[in-house]
Design a protein that fits this description.
Helix content is 21%, strand content 21%. It is α+β, with helices and mostly antiparallel strands. It has one domain. Strand 3 and strand 4 form a beta hairpin. The longest helix has 12 residues.
Length: 86
């Protein structure tokens, strides 16, 4: 999965305006395993039920925005707090 470098350069966290970068595949696998177990909620307090194709991780590594069908979902309430992933 790749995102156009020009697009990635202009994307930022909609809440804090921090830069985002493409998350490592190992983190996405770990997150998808937790999603499959029903352990993940987004910032909107809703369960995340669909696997992620990829993710954009905020510079402070606290929030990940999902990428589904090659489209980054850059909505605050869709952000996934990474503190819940073990």
């Amino acid at each position: 999965m790749s995102i156009d470098k020009e697009l990635l350069a202009i994307l930022c966290c909609p809440e804090t305006k921090q830069a985002v970068s493409l998350a490592e595949e190992s983190l996405i696998q770990k997150l998808n395993a937790a999603v499959a177990r029903g352990e993940v909620k987004n910032l909107g307090k809703r369960p995340v039920s669909a696997e992620l194709d990829a993710g954009l991780i905020r510079a402070d590594r606290k929030i990940l925005y999902p990428v589904r069908e090659n489209i980054p979902v850059m909505l605050i309430e869709e952000g996934i707090p990474l503190e819940q992933i073990h």
